[in-house]
Prior knowledge:
The chain is 39% helix and 16% strand. The radius of gyration is 37 Å and the shape is elongated. It has an eight-stranded mixed beta sheet with strand order 11-10-12-13-9-14-15-16, with helices on both faces. It has a four-stranded antiparallel beta sheet with strand order 1-2-4-3, with helices on one face. Strands 5-8 form a two-stranded antiparallel sheet. The chain has 562 residues and is α/β, with parallel strands linked by helices. It is built from 17 helices and 16 strands.
Amino acid sequence: MARRPLPRILSNSAPIARGREFARTAADSAADVFHPLITISRGLRRLLAAGGRRWSTTPKERRGTLLFIAGGSVLAMAVVPYGPLLAVIAVMAAAAWAGREQPPEEPAGPGDEETGRLRALYEALVPYFAVEGDPSPLYAHDGDWESVFAEYEFDDGGRLSRLCLTYPAYFTDGEAASRDRIEQVLYAKSGRGREYHFTWHEESNRLVLAVLPPLPTDIAAQRFVATQGETVLGFTDPDAVQRTLPVVAGEEVRDVPPVVWRTGPRSTEPHLLALGQPGAGTTTLLRAVALQALAHGDVLVIDGSGTGEYACLAGRAGVMGVETGLSGALATLEWAAHETERRLITANRARQVGQQAPEDTRRPLWIILDRPTALAHLAAAEGREDPQNLLQVPLRHGRAAYVTVVVADQLDSTALLGEPVLTHTRARVVLGPAAPEEVQAVLGAPPHTTPTSDVPPGRGYARLGGGPVLRLQVPATPDPFDDATSEAHRQAVLALLPERTVLAAAPPETAAGGTGEEPGGEPAGADRAGGARRATGVDVLFGAAGSATPRESAVEAGRAEG
């Protein structure tokens, strides 16, 4: 039997939906109109309930007196002019005040679950803080945990977010091993997977544990408010530094605390070493440093991994070369060593005659070397010199010559780094998941937080010279040519790249119709700002402007080997 279609009034749900919406709107309007009446009614119920409780708690021998006082008050209000009206107004006002909506009351103390956590934490600390022979121990089995936990806070999940405890005066808080044991116990009992900060107050015998919020990861590469000689490595906690920078994060502008690395002749840590696990973000850090360095100086890039992570810099104004092979790296580093010596000699001669050093010796030169241990392995296989040995002159004398060296490598290749790199790189960065022992071995000091095993790319620790260990989050600076890069981050990086001065995709004879000119009609390699290519240290070293460059030297070295 075929089914008969439903009536149209039942199949069409639009009128029903409109009716429900009208009823809901009418109910909301009625609630708004009768809200004062509802409040007064609720207040009258509360006043009557309070009066009933007061009557039930009053002793029987005093109820007569209470009734006499109430009756006398009613009689007095009836005799006084306008008394009943004033009484009604007073009752309505009291009912409106008693019937107002009040926020829910917070519990005065910790609940049963929170009390259990504090009790378990107290019992776990007893073996470390209790000593036999103490007449009045602060920590003892089945002791009073409220006497030692001065402050405590819990998050929405019931886990500790802040704790301030008191420990005995005889505890050896000046020894690192003793501190580590206590911090490990607190970390295990308070909940793993979070980052804790421990503050020891030795003068008052107090230890403060606080859960650190995650560092912002939505800050992309951009022009930071910094002067020449200042490089923003990333961002840290608000109470770690005394400075903030305005940054654009998404569609908002906010102030965040930066980790600023200062370079130049007056810097105490002129060179940087960054180590991390694969995928931790060391290449992102070097790319962010290179984009900031191009605003005031020249950059030499050597990519030991050969993955093309710095291809976006090739042929740009201020980029003196991007090398990925061993021959090009050796030629470039050899030129950099000679350029450092030339700058020192030229500046010394100018000072001897009472003149200022030439401008080309004061223009910052940045040598960015990624994965030098990979190049060292290739050099050892071919019986050639380790490229790290050529960094000795720029590392040792680069500060006076305005030469800055930035080196990045993997954490498991630290033992393969050369002695000049480990000795002269006083600014250190560790990115990615790392044990506290590994962080201390690289930075020279342990972190004041508990590292977690799951961190976003670009997250780690930084220490500039002999300063404190800071948490660090590197701004997102991905390779714009990578397909996995988001469009917003790609445009942010492309906006920071200088204009192209050399066509890197094709030889000069095939580019722009075989004329050796760029599409704009200028010769390949010309500086659009001044017409002819600017004479740099490369030109001074190899002759007149436009003679040999590190790239050309690398090509000649490769031909000689062939």
